[in-house]
Write a structure and sequence with these properties.
CATH class of the largest domain: Alpha Beta
Oligomer: single chain
Largest sheet: 7 strands, mixed
Helix content: 40-55%
Distance between the termini: 23 Å
């Protein structure tokens, strides 16, 4: 069979292509935009919050009741902002979502703002008392049967990774440690990566969490280099495998039995890749790479067939 992808492309795709189909999964979103301190920051945080709200409603098809945006100033966008981003309101939002988020759903939590602190005491600045990383860990403990994507796009956010790390949970932070305290630009590029097609590295029509993360890392580095500044923020990710399998976009629907069959076949192939990766340590390197290449080529061919049928994979 003629290879549809080169070995180099396969090597690149290996970490990015494994987007798990959503099936009956629903996505739920909690956005917290914290204190700006200066008008330019307040405006930037509000823009990112608004972009996420629009993205969730228009592209991810999240129900309005499952999109919660808490902000520094609710009067800035009263139609979309649910309330002030206080510790009490954030805790109440998690409680409310826990009544809606079913087993197998995806919960996305995104914090945007200025951060400080270390370890379990790390925080993002909000009006009033700041909730800590330990608080978020406690709030998330009720979502063990869901996939949780937790993004802290604030400065000094790195310690959130170890505090929040758990099964079925991806934790992304704008910085690697709590000591990278300078203004962070990771958030704006991560949001842009989720919103557009530019981050879709394998061009299969689905942007995974890992693809959006990789896009943001590249763009942050490009901006610092362009401005001739030393890179002072290094984003971190807790689970690249789960991030590569997680997408938020609503699943494509089709009444065409051929498309339904193709989607089912691709799901089997994606599950086979996950099983293969779990066996990697016990396999000869050449055998693993050959098996992975065959599976990735087959997935690409299924995606192309679905796209040719007029359905976005």
């Amino acid at each position: 069979m003629r290879r549809a992808l080169s070995l180099a492309a396969i090597a690149l795709a290996a970490g990015l292509v494994l987007a798990a189909p959503l099936g009956a999964q629903r996505t739920h979103l909690l956005v917290v935009t914290g204190l700006g301190g200066e008008p330019r920051f307040s405006e930037a945080f509000a823009r990112q919050g608004a972009a996420l709200h629009t993205l969730a409603r228009t592209q991810w098809r999240v129900a309005d009741s499952s999109v919660v945006w808490l902000a520094e100033d609710p009067a800035r966008d009263p139609r979309r902002i649910r309330g002030r981003a206080t510790r009490e309101a954030i805790g109440a939002a998690f409680l409310s979502l826990s009544r809606r988020v079913a087993a197998g759903d995806v919960l996305v939590v995104i914090l945007i703002g200025h951060g400080s602190g270390e370890g379990p005491g790390s925080r993002v600045n909000v009006p009033g008392a700041d909730p800590t990383a330990a608080d978020y860990a406690a709030w998330l403990s009720g979502f063990a049967r869901q996939t949780v994507v937790f993004v802290n796009a604030a400065s000094a956010s790195g310690d959130f990774v170890d505090v929040l790390r758990a099964p079925n949970r991806v934790v992304l932070t704008a910085t690697r440690t709590a000591f990278e305290r300078n203004e962070s630009i990771f958030g704006e590029h991560f949001v842009r990566g989720l919103s557009g097609a530019e981050a879709d590295a394998d061009k299969d029509g689905r942007t995974t969490v890992l693809e959006a993360f990789a896009y943001a890392v590249r763009e942050v580095a490009r901006v610092y280099e362009q401005d001739q500044r030393m890179l002072t923020e290094h984003a971190a990710l807790s689970d690249s495998t789960l991030a590569a399998r997680t997408v938020f976009a609503a699943a494509a629907a089709s009444d065409d039995p051929r498309v339904v069959a193709l989607v089912a076949e691709r799901r089997v192939l994606e599950d086979s890749v996950a099983a293969l990766r779990a066996r990697k340590a016990s396999m000869p390197a050449a055998a693993y790479e050959d098996a992975l290449e065959r599976l990735l080529v087959a997935i690409a061919e299924k995606s192309e067939a679905i796209r040719a049928a007029g359905v976005k994979p």
